UniProtKB/TrEMBL annotation, chains A, B:
This is Pyruvate, phosphate dikinase. GO terms for molecular function: ATP binding; kinase activity; metal ion binding; pyruvate, phosphate dikinase activity. Residues 445-526 form the PEP-utilising enzyme mobile domain. It comes from the Eukaryota. Belongs to the PEP-utilizing enzyme family. It comes from Rhodosorus marinus. Keywords: ATP-binding, Kinase, Magnesium, Metal-binding, Nucleotide-binding, Transferase.
Length: 920, 920
């Protein structure tokens, strides 16, 4: 009596071991947080405890804590104290179960299972039937049935060998296979008692041969070795590698769960199964799973026999089925999430072996989150939190059919792989240049544009294509950026393909030659190129009602006032980048509340426009130049009108011409080559040679050694004020026209690449002059417009206070700001060393994809604060690649920006990220 | 009596008018500062007052203040109050002189002269003889001599017409010339009384015709109009333009000095002259000047008659001569500077009309400053303050002979002009490429390298040349930077010359064809190119003893502890950039106390080394690469040894390889062109074509769209750690060798282009590994070395705290930092828009020449503070162009840097600037 009391007491105070129904004590000890309980007991142990505490049918047992694991790892042995606690707990389980662990007669058997805070491959899994010995297997055979007993015993030997002693599992499986083959058996079900006995004997030989020792016949030794194996597996190479890759801390440790065995293989009244409380693919609120009669858990997973749908339990195990549904429901109430459960029915009685939050597809994630709000299980905030931006991306991209791809891979129809620059699936005929792409497209063909790399004048080719494949350039190369902007699947850096534009084909590493016009398929979500067509599965935002619901809630959350630094704040608004009415309509459909970046130069690459632009650039005098601009004016005006119409009531931020002028001219190398060839050949091409030479000279005169830092942005406007005049006339003129149609127009003019405040002052003044002239002419002086600037040079960020005095808004051009802050040209860096930097952990991530918080972020933060101090009315946002990157969006929120702008297809994810930022 | 008392009192309190001997009251009123007195009375008035107060023989008079001028400019008329004050003061002058202003008999005549705080062309100069009228000229003729009286009268009419009424002076001069020609006179001395009377009449006609009015016969009206004209001239177009150009504030205004006339034209006992108290060309302490007997001041300046040396006064005006020497000495004691004086001897008596600090050559400036310290007139600090860094530059450059250049200009032998990128004079034969330059040089010829622009592989050509001329590239282009580094005169941007490398010649705008081998001369201090040879005048630092004295004092001042923010600080040390033993010896001779930047890549461009470097770059595997490096190792080691020897006892900071690798490879365009040509011609060059194609492919693979922000600096070291190994072995190995020779070696390894702290951490670790290996091998583990980094990307500046933890020193690479902060590629910007920006006042100055305080400076300041906070032992300096720019040096001092490093030839000026920074 006194000893029992002491036992009770000692376990009550125990740090290392918790009985399943003792989870409340664990919660108290760690201060009440469920997260801390999971850290102490592991996810599996905590959940088993929770189930037990809720009175659900859990086979009794206990958890040896992660602390015990960490102690073990430090001392390299299970301490006396821990072992004493284990034995104490075991005694309590024996009392509850009315059986003795490993007793010769009617023994208590247990499973030993690892369970860390985060589920993790690479660690020891489950050792079943611990406690069986040569002695008690005989008694078990008598008490239950012999076939079951020896089957169980061989499982222990196999598991102990493979998991605890490190023998290759294949050795056991091979022998079993050979044995069955010899006997002419098709399945384990054909095995007789004697067969299993023979297998037991074979397995013991393997164990002996491989490890020099036999299965310990002392059940406690089995258990101790199992616990030791679980703890050791925390530091296995695979586990460490997995933690490195996923960022799980190495100092967490794993718990070990000791649970009384129940048996699904005790005959026809027993079964075992796994199930999800809802459909993990569609999210439908109906249990989804499989079971196997007369089997142990691993058989279900192993797929040895074909399983039955979980709902077929109804016929065969009616009571257990009812209880399973009830328990499933109960678990969802407890864990407020869809559960992934393991269960066993032993002689008609249901036991729960494990529960955890179930993995699911993006589609299921969204539906379940929405449904659970409707069911009152979770709040809208919780639902929004649960949906990840990656889920949204996946939902919105058409994808290649998985099954067909699998087949294509098997048939070696994969041509190349590259960087998954813009996700989705695309199928079409190869076009090796933009012109061909446009031609094929005009014939109603689906096209895949295949290029060494792309340039701005390839943009028309993008519009004509279903997908883009390049041999060069990384995830933020021109091709990638443009593709993402327009939601075109794109694979970059497929460096093994060799394009031959003369012979109009490309060759793969395997020597396959793909000709222009041949069909290929891009799995751009992953980066695989396939020969021939593969079916695609479409996405359609309008039909994604569940997602739309989640995004509407996201908008609500971002719009709600919340408090930061004692101030009521609004979350980030999501604007869209867009250069046309079509873009803008798409952006509105996706939920953008403004255009944050209209790149006017994209409008100049169209086939009717490029010649005018070249005429402007190559003009010898202002008169010629003015004539070219006069021709461009109505075209630009019409462009802007279309955008304003689509964005009625929302702001439209239009950037003045930004790129260096030579981007509009023919390629320099090609001209050098032409001139050289003409010089050598004597075919009387004198005039043509002279002309080409002259053109080359003009191109040369515009050539720059570092064009990114040359004559572009506001510098072009200052050199050619007539360009500002034309653009402002188009911007404000179009606004007047559309307003006359009865719409609400909110134009904003953005000046790019400021590095000196005077640049902005000067150009702002000119813009106002021209704008007011147009307004006067239209008799619309009350039409208000804003003038702001990009902050994209480090110096602009550092002198933001001065610049803010002439700006109504700042828009951080974090692409250029990152390039200039790092001193890294994006394309050059990604092509030559950036990946190496990430691999070597010099950089944690590519700063062109995710905003660099420490460096570029510091500049953005400084500029935001200095700018607002100088001009409290300043509106501040970000445009460009980072504006669509979820982690960057959270950073923008933290720094107090007003909006982010990203490509139309990234808007849904951005809306979600903006809400996440408010919730975290 | 009562009225006189009141007069006395009213003038004592007068704000607008100060009598000459009343300068003490002016000093009191403005708070005692001489600068403020000069602002109130103008430089001329203040100095006249000072002389009068010192009892020197100044014709009495008074100054109407700049305040009165500002009042006038505001109200557009002389106020009643000012005029009353003028009349009061005039009465006092009349009393003192015992004459009445403009009286009919024995009139008091005055001069009216403008005088602002800063001497300024474009304003009204001097109106002499004010107060003469038709009436009193007769009396004056009787009292003195008639010829003098009518000469004076015609001068008044001419001056009044030209200066007060704005009549073109030529009209008067033409008539006088015609008159003399008709009469057959050679000089004014031939003119008789009647002749002058006739001229008076002719001049009055001109005045009447041109202005419609006659000379006012009321003397007070003459004076009031004269004062009005002086005040108005402050806002003349020329004066405003001059102030805009020189940065003189427009709100200062000018004073007007009214001074009793004395006459140097009263016959042979009278004369007038100008003199410097010391020689303004050589600085010799002996009065230097001219005088003219029987003349008025303007005659001396006008050069109408040839003057006498001032020391000839001794024979003709012995007493006045003695007094002049005494007065000169006295003035130097009062103004503690060499004076530029105007004097008149009237009937044997000396009068001082003006004194001011004298302008002088750089050489005189230095000598006078040194002498005055020796004479106890000024302190060393004052001497150092007076010498400007520009003076030092001028002293140290060989120059073309001025006289010969004048002749060449006259003969139209000037071929072109350009930017004076690196000062000095150079004469030599034209070489159109580096190879030719080296060839001619090896034949003992003087060479001028003439290129479109230069690249790193032209550097050997620089060494072979006396001067460099380029058609492209500004003051900080490659050519300019390298030229300054090596003290080679260089003219850039001579855009009118057209180079034809086929025909081996260049053509000027005038069509002159200059062939390779022809001699030209560069006046690179100004930017002029001459045909044919012009003699040069050499500079020799060792012989510049006066300058050396000044610089020694500068070093003393910079080394003295001074206090800033309550801390004792040392001024800036001056280090030198240098890549060789020769450079380093030069640097020591110029007074550098360390090498702040040794660019190892410059060593790779030598003719024996470039092939090895190319071998390294084009290697297909690490083995080939290692072999190339093995060959380079002994060469680098020897380079470093030479530097250490020259710098024994001083730190040597060696930068690891910095430029992008393609800079070591052949030109891409040339290869493209070659390939194209070979493709067309069918001369069986198949193998050569293949080889060229392959080379082009390799060059292409290293090609970058923005090489400045590509694979260079530390990025190369990280990609090719074997390069670090070779360089560290050479750096530390050489240090061991030289130390064994008994010298003190202080090597410091500098890692370029850090943008992420991990880069430095990683490379530092490798450097330490290799260095310690070498030290162990040499058994010299006590040889200490430092490892630091360039701060040249904005991100490095922003994350300086992290970087400082792995750095022993920072060296700001402000060239790149400026490029990246502004987002401006230096060459592209200077070629295409930077000058336009300066012209339009968008930028006040070229930020590549003078450190941009607001932007780049802010980053430097942040990084300095953050770096020191994280690592208080951090040494901080600056290398590159700004390190030799005086205003940037002052800024570096303000930001608390420890040293600046500049090219050897800029060291003297930098030493001076470092002292200036301590004194201001």
């Amino acid at each position: 009596m006194r000893s029992a009391e002491m036992d009770e007491k000692s376990l009550n105070n125990d740090r290392y071991v918790y009985l399943f129904d003792d989870v409340a004590r664990a919660e108290r000890n760690v201060g009440g947080s469920w997260d801390a309980v999971r850290e102490l007991l592991g996810g599996k142990g905590a959940n088993l405890g929770k189930m037990a505490s809720e009175g659900l049918p859990v086979p009794y047992g206990f958890t040896v804590t992660t602390e015990a694991c960490l102690d073990y790892l430090k001392q390299d042995s299970i301490s006396e104290q821990v072992w004493t606690s284990v034995l104490d707990a075991l005694r309590k389980v024996e009392t509850r179960m009315g059986k003795k662990f490993g007793a010769d007669v009617d023994p208590l058997l247990v499973s030993c299972r690892s369970g860390a805070k985060f589920s993790m491959p690479g660690m020891m899994d489950t050792l079943l039937n611990t406690g069986l010995t040569d002695a008690n297997v005989v008694s078990l055979a008598k008490a239950t049935n012999p076939r079951f007993a020896y089957d169980s015993y061989r499982r222990l030997i196999q598991g102990f060998g493979a998991i605890v002693m490190g023998v290759a599992d294949d050795l056991f499986e091979e022998q079993l296979k050979t044995y069955k083959a010899k006997a002419g058996y098709e399945s384990d079900l054909d095995m007789t008692v004697d067969d299993w006995k023979a297998i037991v004997s074979i397995y013991r030989t393997i164990l002996k041969e491989q490890t020099g020792s036999d299965l310990p016949q002392n059940p406690l030794v089995q258990m101790k070795m199992a616990i030791t194996a679980v703890f050791s597996s925390w530091n296995s190479e695979r586990a460490r590698a997995y933690r490195n890759a996923t960022g799980i801390p190495h100092e967490l440790g794993t718990a070990c769960n000791i649970q009384s065995m129940v048996f699904g293989n005790m005959g026809d009244t027993s079964c075992t199964g796994v199930a999800f409380t809802r459909n993990p693919t569609t999210g439908e609120n109906r249990m989804f799973g499989d079971f196997l009669p007369n089997a142990q858990g691993e058989d279900v997973v192993a797929g040895i026999r074909s399983c039955f749908n979980v709902h077929e339990l109804k016929g065969r195990f009616a009571q257990a089925y009812e209880e399973l549904l009830r328990v499933g429901n109960n678990l969802e109430q407890v864990f407020r999430n869809m559960q992934d459960i393991e269960f066993t029915v032993q002689e008609g009685k249901l036991f729960m072996l494990q529960t955890r939050d179930g993995k699911r597809t993006a589609r299921a994630q969204v539906r379940i989150a929405k449904d659970m709000v409707r069911e009152g299980l979770i709040s809208k905030e919780e639902a929004v939190k649960r949906v990840q931006t990656g889920d949204v991306d996946v939902l919105l991209m058409p994808q290649l059919d998985e099954r067909e791809m699998e087949e294509a891979r098997r048939k070696s129809l994969m041509l190349a792989s590259g960087v998954n620059a813009s996700p989705g699936g695309a199928v079409g005929q190869v076009a090796l240049d933009s012109k061909t792409a446009e031609e094929l497209h005009s014939q109603g063909k689906d096209v895949i544009l295949v290029r060494q790399f792309t340039k701005p004048d390839d943009v028309p080719g993008f519009f004509a294509s279903k997908g883009v494949l390049t041999a060069e350039g990384g995830a933020t190369s021109h091709a990638a950026v443009v593709a993402r902007q327009f939601g075109i699947p794109c694979i970059c850096s497929a460096s093994t393909i060799v394009i031959d534009t003369e012979k109009r084909c490309f060759t793969t590493a395997q020597g396959t030659v793909v000709h222009e016009g041949d069909v290929i398929s891009l799995n751009a979500s992953v980066g695989e190129v396939f020969q021939g067509p593969i079916s695609t599965v479409d996405a359609n935002f309008e039909h994604e009602e569940d997602l739309q619901m989640i995004l509407d809630w996201s908008d609500e959350i971002a719009a709600e006032n919340y408090t930061r630094n004692n101030k009521k704040m609004r979350g980030l608004k999501v604007f869209s980048n867009g250069d046309s009415g079509v873009d803008s309509a798409k952006a509105r459909a996706f939920g953008a509340v403004g255009i944050g970046l209209c790149r006017t130069e994209h409008m100049f690459f169209g086939s009717e426009r490029l010649p005018l632009m070249r005429k402007f650039i190559l003009s010898q005098d202002t008169k010629q130049r003015a004539a070219a601009l006069d021709d461009l004016l109505p075209i630009q005006t019409a462009d802007f009108e279309a955008i304003y119409r689509a964005m009625s009531g929302f702001p439209v931020i239009i950037r003045l011409l930004d790129p260096p002028l030579h981007e509009f001219l023919p390629d320099r190398d090609a001209l050098v080559s032409s001139v050289a060839k003409m010089e050598v050949s004597s075919n009387g091409l004198r005039r043509q040679l002279e002309e080409t030479r002259e053109l080359l000279a003009q191109v040369e005169s515009l050539h720059e050694s570092n064009p990114m830092m040359g004559l572009r942005g506001v510098r072009v406007s200052i050199l050619y004020p007539e360009l500002i005049k034309m653009q402002v006339k188009a911007i404000i003129g179009a606004a007047c026209n559309v307003r006359r149609e009865g719409m609400s127009v909110l134009p904003e003019i953005m000046i790019p690449l400021i590095s000196v405040s005077k640049e902005l002052e000067m150009v702002r003044h000119q813009c106002e002059l021209y704008a007011d002239e147009v307004l006067e002419l239209n008799n619309m002086k009350d039409l208000s417009y804003k003038i702001g600037t990009m902050i994209e040079t480090p110096r602009a960020a550092v002198t933001a206070d001065e610049i803010a005095r002439s700006a109504d808004f700042f828009s951080f051009g974090t692409n250029d700001l990152t390039q200039m802050s790092f001193g890294m040209s994006r394309d050059d860096a990604e092509r030559r060393f950036l990946q190496d930097y990430v691999n070597k952990n010099i950089l944690m991530k590519n700063p062109f994809q995710s905003l660099d918080e420490k460096g570029v972020g510091k500049l953005v933060h400084m500029a935001t604060n200095d700018g607002r101090e100088a001009n409290p009315a300043l509106q501040i946002g970000i445009c460009g690649e980072h504006g669509g990157d979820p982690s960057s969006i959270v950073l923008c929120h933290k720094m107090g920006l007003d909006y982010v702008s990203c490509s139309p297809y990234r808007i849904p994810a951005a809306r979600l990220a903006a809400a996440h930022a408010c919730l975290w």
